[in-house]
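Incident log, support desk, overnight shift.

02:14 A customer reports that sequence design results differ from what the structure should imply. Their input is reproduced verbatim below. On-call engineer (initials T.W.) acknowledged and began investigating.
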């Protein structure tokens, strides 16, 4: 059996509350080996999520960003959680609010359940295979005004594109010249997947480095909303990638997330 998504939602909100507590204080920023920033909020949120998942779904391994950075990597499994306790650390440090808590369940390489919570924005999204996708507000730790969401058909006159606020690349600029773009919005963290899932954007192309914990939760929500995520070779983005010839474990290739149905 899969864990109840309500329990994962509650856990994401609990981790988000700890992030907001630190967000409201002065906090130190250190750089990891890959030059990405990490704060006490990343570490405390991950500790909360790991403890919670251990209670909710004992026996299911958890691949979590900060644990992997510290060398704590579980054995390969067909079923595992992917966790980014604070996606959009640059957004957190710059205090623009566009950071998220990401929790996903992967089965046989496919993200089948995902929760994305933006604590500073008071917004949460979730979705599961066969269960649809949803968006709601969060006030005082309580989910309110939940509604089902779904991708919308692309406009006839062009595409609404969403891209990374902190990771623009020349490859993205080149790609955008090949498609009809009517609107382009820069947004931080996994919020980009959520905008496509809600029907507020048509396309999220990513021509830059991401890790599986960055994308799995948003990918699950987008799939549940009727969208898809494909590599540049038009293959589904898969999870649990290890022993890659030219990349580190769990690193993603470039991809395009869009509102078209597909696996």
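02:41 Re-run completed on a clean worker. Output:
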């Amino acid at each position: 059996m899969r864990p109840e998504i309500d329990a994962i939602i509650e856990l994401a909100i609990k981790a988000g509350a700890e992030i907001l507590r630190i967000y409201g204080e002065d906090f130190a920023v250190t750089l990891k080996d890959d030059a990405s920033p990490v704060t006490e909020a990343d570490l405390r949120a991950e500790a909360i999520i790991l403890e919670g998942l251990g209670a909710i779904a004992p026996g299911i391994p958890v691949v979590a960003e900060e644990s992997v950075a510290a060398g704590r990597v579980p054995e390969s499994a067909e079923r595992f959680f992917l966790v980014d306790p604070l996606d959009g650390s640059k957004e957190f440090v710059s205090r623009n609010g566009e950071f998220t808590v990401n929790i996903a369940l992967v089965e046989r390489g496919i993200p089948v359940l995902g929760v994305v919570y933006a604590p500073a924005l008071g917004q949460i999204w979730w979705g599961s295979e066969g269960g649809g996708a949803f968006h709601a507000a969060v006030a005082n730790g309580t989910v309110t005004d939940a509604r089902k969401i779904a991708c919308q058909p692309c406009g006839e006159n062009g595409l609404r594109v969403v891209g990374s606020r902190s990771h623009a690349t020349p490859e993205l600029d080149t790609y955008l010249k090949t498609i009809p773009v009517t609107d382009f919005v820069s947004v931080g963290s996994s919020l980009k997947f959520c905008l496509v899932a809600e029907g507020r954007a048509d396309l999220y192309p990513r021509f830059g480095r991401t890790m599986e914990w960055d994308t799995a939760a948003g990918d699950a929500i987008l799939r549940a909303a009727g969208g898809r995520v494909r590599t540049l070779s038009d293959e589904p983005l898969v999870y649990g990638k290890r022993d890659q010839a030219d990349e580190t474990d769990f690193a993603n290739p470039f991809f395009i997330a869009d509102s078209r149905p597909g696996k």
